[in-house]
Amino acid sequence: xxxxxxxxxxxxxxxxxxxxxxxxxxxxxxxxxxxxxxxxxxxxxxxxxxxxxxxxxxxxxxxxxxxxxxxxxxxxxxxxxxxxxxxxxxxxxxxxxxxxxxxxxxxxxxxxxxxxxxxxxxxxxxxxxxxxxxxxxxxxxxxxxxxxxxxxxxxxxxxxxxxxxxxxxxxxxxxxxxxxxxxxxxxxxxxxxxxxxxxxxxxxxxxxxxxxxxxxxxxxxxxxxxxxxxxxxxxxxxxxxxxxxxxxxxxxxxxxxxxxxxxxxxxxxxxxxxxxxxxxxxxxxxxxxxxxxxxxxxxxxxxxxxxxxxxxxxxxxxxxxxxxxxxxxxxxxxxxxxxxxxxxxxxxxxxxxxxxxxxxxxxxxxxxxxxxxxxxxxxxxxxxxxxxxxxxxxxxxxxxxxxxxxxxxxxxxxxxxxxxxxxxxxxxxxxxxxxxxxxxxxxxxxxxxxxxxxxxxxxxxxxxxxxxxxxxxxxxxxxxxxxxxxxxxxxxxxxxxxxxxxxxxxxxxxxxxxxxxxxxxxxxxxxxxxxxxxxxxxxxxxxxxxxxxxxxxxxxxxxxxxxxxxxxxxxxxxxxxxxxxxxxxxxxxxxxxxxxxxxxxxxxxxxxxxxxxxxxxxxxxxxxxxxxxxxxxxxxxxxxxxxxxxxxxxxxxxxxxxxxxxxx
Length: 664
Prior knowledge:
Blueprint: H1 14-23, H2 26-30, E1 37-40, E2 43-46, E3 58-61, E4 66-69, E5 75-77, H3 78-86, H4 90-101, H5 123-144, H6 149-157, H7 162-168, E6 171-173, H8 179-186, H9 191-196, E7 200-203, E8 206-209, E9 214-220, E10 226-233, E11 244-246, E12 259-260, H10 262-272, E13 274-278, H11 281-289, E14 295-298, H12 305-315, E15 324-328, H13 333-346, E16 354-357, H14 365-372, H15 374-382, E17 385-386, H16 387-396, H17 404-418, H18 424-437, H19 444-451, H20 478-481, H21 501-515, H22 535-546, H23 567-579, H24 585-594, H25 601-629, H26 636-661
Helix pairs in contact: 3-4, 11-14, 13-16, 14-15, 16-17, 16-18, 17-18, 18-19, 21-22, 21-25, 23-24, 25-26
């Protein structure tokens, strides 16, 4: 076993870290960011949050507390997942998970540091904590401050009572430029941090609150952490004329990847396979209160590729389970332009269908709910039409289709929207729709003829090299994982799906070494490294030997067949991952730990015997070749010695083969 790390002041005790890993359910944490569904063998799968893919290759194995993506190779435990997706330090990730699981952490040579002098908390976590403290204070002002009366009236006029404000965490920022800053600084947050967090600005006379005299909506990540705010203007004398003011880009706030309301909607988005994209914060509130609990909105920016990626993960939008995305836009020219942008930027990003829902009188969900009630909002979403059809209809509506030349121009105008569509099956369907809309009947060939000279080379629906969103479940390309640095050894990767009996045998043995080592026979630890045909499996066997061999692995603490699903087994996997120094070996161990295995001691013994027989067979073949080249009359002593060794090896191989056959 590797030596324990030396005690360092401020380091979290290893026993506490292990307790956090054991007590936090990895599927609950990952499920905040990815829609997961059953994959068999007790595992779950979903679309990877770390790379773009159409077929899910991201797997979570709750019994082992691990995740692994077979597309991009990222994997690890629940702590590593939170570090990777949130950009946290190890300490920050452990502390956040410990708070979630009610684990009291102890630090080497002293109790947990507290207050403003705690060195372990990174900048990101401090910003999140400051935002949370600010949100709570703003919410208290909205509920209790006489100054917040205009804010309460604003909400009431739109049909939102105090309970609705509390549900969405809405608050009020007083006109006093320093009020919230005084509260935050007294809680230990320094001015530099508040500026970095976007809560404060630096003026000529000192710091001031960026949000003054405004109604505030907290912007949360999928995890529920407050990372920013959207602020609505209330007073005519507000020196900032913009109706809405949002948090500027910060280390935790990127508006291109955030969706307001996604933390509340994520569960129902996955359950219903539908996401509704509205335009504003009050629209999200109205939709949820009306029963459309899958509504989200962008935060002061157009809907883009990163927003689409977030929704695809929540929808489990893949070839086997297609979700739908419904956009709601105003019925005016601006709404049409927004629909056109959405079509161009997202239609090919989703495997499922994209729709648009536009209220005939141009009312948004908030106004519609106020005027016609909750049912009208639900009916609006139910009346959706395909986004491509709306865009084409809006385009050809500008032309006089009674004239032949105008029909041709309408085809060309509509065709301009279809050139970006790479999916051939979709493109053919859109062409037929365009033919109908432009009075060419069911003759898409005529539309193709008109567009023939205008369609650029390569826009025929065939996917070109470099297109994003292809099926990457078969494994990463060199560009996916990154080329190794010059002179550096290539990182180990788990081989593709084993196909030959030899490959399947080695794969299963490597699984046993990681998941159920105590079921392996004693001679597993003596296998010749040259016996393994793949360097990744050989490296795993070498790693097991380096930590003392399979025989030192703990028994399953819960009496189950697989130690990897028990607390002791998790510790074994963690031991291997910690000791894995070779590039990529940690990922190989993780991948083997999350793949399905049905433990059986007799089968493990047979696998070991058969692989050992192959190794001995290679030695027999090499020795036979050597003996056949020798001259017994001149090399008698060496010939007799090698011949005796050959007979012994043959007997050993026969015994191994018989042992292997007994378990088949």
